[in-house]
Amino acid sequence: MIVALPDSESQVAQILRLCHAMHVPVVPRGAGTGLAGSALPHAAGVLLSMAKFNRIVDIDPKARTATVQPGVRNLAISEAARPHRLYYAPDPSSQIACTIGGNVAENSGGVHCLKYGLTVHNVLRVRALTIEGEAVEFGGGALDCPGLDLLAAVVGSEGMLAVTTEVMVRLVPTPQLARCIMASFAEVTHACHAVAALLAAGIIPAGLEMLDQAASRLVEPFAHAGYDLDAAAVLLCESDGTPEEVEDEIERMSAVLREAHATRLQVSRDELERQRFWDGRKNAFPAAGRASPAYYCMDGTIPRRHLGQMLTAIQAMERKYGLHCPNVFHAGDGNLHPLILFDDADADSVARAERFGAEILEQTVQLGGTISGEHGIGVEKLNQMCSQFDRATLDAFIAVKHAFDPSGLLNPGKVVPTLHRCAEYGRVKVHSGNERFPELPRF
Amino acid sequence: MDQAVAAISEQIRAAATDRTALRVRAGGSKDFYGNTPHGALLDPRAVRGIVAYDPSELSIAVRCGTPLAQLEAVLEERGQMLAFEPPHFGAHATIGGCVATGLAGPRRAANGYCYGGVRDFVLGAKLLDGQGQLLSFGGMVMKNVAGYDLARLLTGSLGVLGVLVEVALKVVPKPRMEATLRIAMDEATALAKLNEWGAQPWPISASAWQAGTLSLRLSGSAAAVNAARSRLPGESMPQTDTAAFWQGIKEHIAAFFLGDAPLWRLSLPSTAEPLKLDDEQLIEWGGALRWLRCGRPAAEIRSRAHALGGHATLFRGGDRSQGVFTPLSPALTAIHKRLRAHFDPAAIFDAGRMFL
Asked: Which chain B residue has the Cα nearest residue A304?
């Protein structure tokens, strides 16, 4: 394995041309904060670190865009835009460290995407190099572009279609005011119903997050967020906008939450308190890391009406596998992050955690959901791709990969499972000669 | 596969065997759009009906032959709507045609949760490919990064990759209040102001500048709309006139869109300077969409759009023989060709509608 640290687009192009000519796999990598192994190095390949692409090229306050190199951190964009009272909306919990190139690769979300969208909704243009080293632009400075919407395929493609060298994102006005309600519930199902009731009432909260009791108790000693530790579930519900809008919306939200049997409502009184409410939620992963030798974070998304059923199923799995699993989740999006706590020094505990995780993913598919809401497939969820998609659809994914990267050298072995892998996982019957693109190398 | 879908699949397979060209057409409301269509008719309207709708999920799954008007009526009943305010361009528009053309209306550039084009609200899509296989991309959930996002890629694909049979869309609550302001200003001032206001948290949901008057639609809670109305300049349009005014812009039935002069659609960065082409013009989307009535040569209009950082489409009328869309770069063309080769190996779908 070779690690390359280029600092210009022409260097990246040269590396790609060389690798293409010599038939060497290339794995692009940003900050390495991903959770699915999308940027794991290839043993016989070049690891293409984009760490030196860390320049903010342009902030255009009039057009409300930021043009940045892929190694720029997510939060750095909002910091650079702050003097103009603008910010970049998608805010994954890892935003202090993760980079925009990685966000584009994973289509990252965050706690505010119900209202403001995911990465795909906030990226206007991606400049990239193909595996042949040729520069291409997906999207543009206008709101649409001629031809097929290839930008949609590139965002979330986990570095398998092209190497991103520059990204133009949309900036949005910073709300004048944001306030957050912390609501306690005596039953998890009450909290789940409250989520549906808010949305059915025509309210789109700026953030709508849930922690179950195990999660609140996990983060409280770490973040001191002031969570109600006696509540079976805590819901964080945020409103943002002009002061008049926020006042009006907080009142409507509070009425719906009370109606949905909230046992206690606390509205943030100032920005400091609002930040404190969120600190607990955003620090759930580090808190899990402190409370347990290791944790395994899942990422399924299900239709919201099944949230209660899913949580009950996870409780049963806790008993089955003898492991604890606190739950934090983007309730507004139906995106769950069960945190399976295990001991990585104990092979049996590791094996149980893996089986626990796999069962959660299978359950997610059963409930009409998806195995990944925002963390990606990488190498982690290759098996479950066989459960979620039939062979014809998986072949279409292989075709997309082939359309952008006919040589199959960019980040091989990720995201799309081979027919053989699905067969071994017991999800597909192999018929000889059935595989599309038999000429493609399958790493 | 149910009977209606199976019948289309059968028609596709027969066409693939015979190598006969197919042209997907439902209500025909957007026949004018794109390059001149070719091929035997494939009418997908037997595949219709709402598949799943739960307002608290903020999503709806609908079969593609469903009339757009019916879909909108179902949402309206529950106080919801399609955020992208799609133009129908005729009484028989279907949701399939809406997604296949990917055309959004005045709300496209709204501030807040309605921001986005058709693709931004597509969650899933089912497609019959060129071999009659049923493929399913995305789903009903808000966030989904399993596999490449082909549901969005199919949006605006004009049927060149296959026949859309079902889509899942994110829907949003209707705003509780709307008001429209009319402000007299010239083009350059309007563009400057639209960009300035776009960077401020005003609840602007649509804009239209034409012949010295800027119309701004405000949407949201009463508190937000009233606060904006008191702080932005201009006169309120009588509430009784607003619906018809925005309908005229969206459906191209306002006076500007009538007549036979070619209609160009220029999609540009919102900050692009005035076109200075001296032709009749209507500006939407905060400056990012400029409609132009003129018979100038395509090359002149395309080069002006390119210089301003965007692209130009000959939307209606004019000389369509040289292609109505801006040609793609060789690198992008190669990707398009390889995608098409997989989805439609017998090359039966009317790719000329998009690529010429």
From this structure: B57
pLDDT tens readout for residues A140-184: 999 999 999 999 999 999 999 999 999 999 999 999 999 999 999
Nearest to A162 by CA among A31, A258, A70: A70
Tell me the C-alpha to C-alpha distance, in Å, between residue A316 and each of A283, A312, A325, A351: 26, 7, 11, 18
Contact B176 A130 (CB under 8 A): no
Mean model confidence pLDDT for chain A: 93
Identity of residue A425: Y
Q: A391-404 vs B330-343: helix axis angle to the nearest 10?
A: 160
Mutate to test the interface with B, among A82, A86, A136, A144 (most CBs of B within 10 A): A144
Radius of gyration, alpha carbons of chain A? 22
- Model ipTM? 0.97
CA geometry: angle B218, B219, B223, nearest 5 deg:
95
The separation between the first and the last C-alpha atoms of chain A, rounded to the nearest angstrom, is 15
Convert chain A into a string of H (helix), E (strand) and C (coil).
CEEECCCCHHHHHHHHHHHHHHCCCEEEECCCCCCCCCCCCCCCCEEEECCCCCCEEEEECCCCEEEECCCCEHHHHHHHHHHHCEECCCCCCCCCCCEHHHHHHHCCCCCCHHHHCCHHHHEEEEEEECCCCCEEEEECCCCCCCCCCHHHHHCCCCCCCCEEEEEEEECEECCCEEEEEEEEECCHHHHHHHHHHHHHCCCCCCEEEEEEHHHHHHHHHHHCCCCCCCCCEEEEEEEEECHHHHHHHHHHHHHHHHHCCEEEEEECCCHHHHHHHHHHHHCHHHHHHHHCCEEEECCCECCHHHHHHHHHHHHHHHHHHCCCCCEEEEHHHCEEEEEEEECCCCHHHHHHHHHHHHHHHHHHHHCCCECCCCCCCCCCCHHHHHHHCCHHHHHHHHHHHHHHCCCCCECCCCCCCCHHHHHHCCCCCCCCCCCCCCCCCCC
CB B339 to CB A148 under 8 A?
yes
Contact map slice: B 90-119 vs A, CB within 8 A: 102, 108-109, 111-113, 115-117, 119
- Residues A300 and A298: their CA atoms lie apart, in Å, by 6
The ranges of chain B with pLDDT < 50 are none
* DSSP tag of B120: G
Query: Among partner residues A241, A245, A301, which is closest to B144 by beta-carbon distance?
Result: A301
A positions 45-84 inside 8 Å of B (CB): 60-64, 84
Model confidence pLDDT, tens digit, residues A361-394: 999 999 999 999 999 999 999 999 999 999 999 9
**What span, in angstroms and rounded, lies between the C-alpha atoms of B300 and B275?**
12
Number of Cβ within 10 Å of residue B24's Cβ equals 26
Q: Count A/B contacts: CB-CB distance under 8 Å.
A: 269
Rg of chain B, C-alpha, whole Å: 21
